[in-house]
Amino acid sequence: MRRREFITLLGGTAAAWPLAARAQPERMRQIGVLIGVADDAEGQARLAAFRKGMQDLGWAEGRNARFDVRFTGGAADRAQTYAAELVALAPDAILANTAAVVSALQQQTKTIPIVFVQVLDPVSSGFVESLARPGGNITGFSGYDFGLGAKWLEILKDIVPGVTRVGVLRDPTLPGGSGALGAIQAIAPSLKVELTALDVRDAASIERGLAALAREPNRGVIVLANPGAVVHLDLIIALVARRRLPAVYPYRFFATRGGLISYGTDNLAEWRQAASYVDRLLKGEKPADLPVQQPTKYELVINLKTARALGLDVPAMLLARADEVIE
For residues 166 and 222, is the Cβ–Cβ distance under 8 A? Predict the structure, then answer.
């Protein structure tokens, strides 16, 4: 081969290299998603928020990402079953919510990176060593600070000053539930309120608890953030309306579904933010090095239609503080 022909051939081959590189398909990354609520409108909204967050970061389903999704409906046995299924698929990362779901995953793997949302006390639950340095294969976004419990009772007294007995709907099996209840108990004497803890784990317990509370004068309800409350949210809202019980809820979607008032984090924003941690894990960072993020903003939502049905006049001061008022 003459020298000129060799140079020409070499140049043509080099020019083809970038085209060949561009033709290589992107590596498909597999993301497991285990959601501790039902596959309903609220569950789908959370999933959509996460998918949108991933899409904004360049992860397109079918091109470079695949999502394997399971909904537990709040059932512990399904959480265990689906956790085992997802871990067996060996995904690159898993997104999960609620302490029960994260606990089920933790029993299945110590190596697959896990990002959680809506876990109230990840340190006491044993998921991370500390908020600043998680230390293992789990990190994520905490739902709220326990001090928010005191704020819920203050809001209830603001809207119903005469309330003296408050039922607190909580799941006694959740580690984080006792912390929120403790914050309410700490402030209750100064507000001249007597508390009754009500079990939210099944419909029958909820109905019995609210029925007994409704027989007392000057009563109200606080619903703590937990999977049982979300699973039974329509039942809870219907029961408190039927028994004319003023209630404070932890998330906006309770108020939009007919609840009186909610104060808490933007639930869907947490799911969108979780995408940023999954993205960083897929790019090589370690969960142990990603600090647990705590909420910095809370939103107050008031349902005036429900207030009128209960015969309540919402104070102007409270309306002025609201981030959203539902007419």
Answer: yes
Question: Which of 215, 224, 268 minimizes the C-alpha distance to 248?
Answer: 224
Confidence of residue 145 (pLDDT cuts 50, 70, 90): confident
Taking only the tens place, the pLDDT of each residue in 238-264 is 999 999 999 999 999 999 999 999 999
pLDDT tens column, 198-247: 999 889 999 999 999 999 999 999 999 888 888 899 999 999 999 999 99
26 phi/psi in degrees, rounded to 5: -70, 150
Q: Are the beta carbons of 115 and 96 closer than 8 angstroms?
A: yes
Residue 303 neighbours by CB distance under 10 Å: 25
Superfamily of domain 148-264+299-326: Response regulator (3.40.50.2300)
Homologous superfamily in CATH for domain 29-143+267-289: Response regulator (3.40.50.2300)
Nearest to 255 by CA among 311, 322, 204: 322
CA distance 238 to 224: 17
Residue 20's pLDDT band (cuts 50, 70, 90): very low
d(CA 255, CA 14): 63
Q: Is the dihedral of CA 102, 108, 109, 112 positive or negative?
A: negative
Q: What pTM did the predictor assign?
A: 0.84
- CB count within 10 Å of CB 300 equals 19
CA-closest candidate to residue 93, choices 27, 26, 32, 28 = 32
- Sheet-wide strand order for 299-303: 194-199, 165-170, 219-223, 247-249, 261-264, 299-303, 324-326
Segments of the chain assigned to CATH 3.40.50.2300? 29-143+267-289, 148-264+299-326
The CA distances from residue 188 to 63, 88, 151, 169, 247, in Å, are 54, 47, 11, 15, 16
Give SS3 for 301. Answer: strand
Report the b/e string of 194-209 with b at 16+ CB within 10 A: ebebbbbbeeebbeeb
